[in-house]
Amino acid sequence: MINEILIVDDNADIRLLISDILKNKGFNVRIAANFDQALAEINKKLPDVAVVDVKLDKGDNDGIDLLTHIKKINDDVPVIMISGHANVKMAVDSLKLGAFEFMQKPFSSERLLNFINRAVENIELKKEKHVLESKLFQSYDMVGKSQAIEKIKNLIAKLANTESRVFISGPAGSGKELVARQIHKKSHRSTKPFVVVNGALLDPEKYELELFGSENLDGSINYGFFEKAKDGTLLIDEVSEIPLETQAKILRVL
């Protein structure tokens, strides 16, 4: 499959440079010099990956506005932000808004291709994940018509239509994850990630890092489970195995 890349930069030389690098590697490339041109290209067809300059001349909208627009259309599209006037705050703000990566100009062709290849891999992984989850949901529907099962089904239907935080209790093997998946499947979040984390399997020295993520000195972000489940569902199994102090922080986040 040949991936399609949209390059958005107000500098014609940069557009040509990136375009040549990517075309030489077999990618299809489209270019835009500003927000309006990019919007026109997106309206024709959403690209597989976008490379967007933070600052765009001409018009009231910049690269950050375009990033937000793309993520609203399809959150799975990786957007690589670039800038010749980068700072840590700019990078962090971009990543918080959903950018896949942030690159400061000038950058090498190797660095660009590394990010593009990672973005393409990310796309394929998400596609595989959606297929597997779809098969899982089809294979593991709740069965049975007893009064108890019908009561659970009705409760699942009610919970799926709310934004409530849900506590599911029961002995091992009683179907807690199945219930959680059914709630997710029947909700408006069904196309978003369903992330499972087992509290008993987390690294005791990295509970908070794994759950909440971290920001490195260079401005790059290590995403935690909460961020990975953004707009979807996070199931924390064996939550009692997590230290009380960290449980309190989880409650504050919720």
From TrEMBL:
Domain (Sigma-54 factor interaction): residue spans on this chain: 142-254
Gene Ontology terms for molecular function: ATP binding
SUPFAM superfamilies given in the database record: CheY-like, P-loop containing nucleoside triphosphate hydrolases
Keyword ATP-binding in record: yes
Keywords for this protein: ATP-binding, Nucleotide-binding, Phosphoprotein, Transcription, Transcription regulation
Biological processes, Gene Ontology terms: phosphorelay signal transduction system; regulation of DNA-templated transcription
Segments forming domain Response regulatory: 4-120
Key word Transcription regulation present: yes
Protein name: Response regulatory domain-containing protein
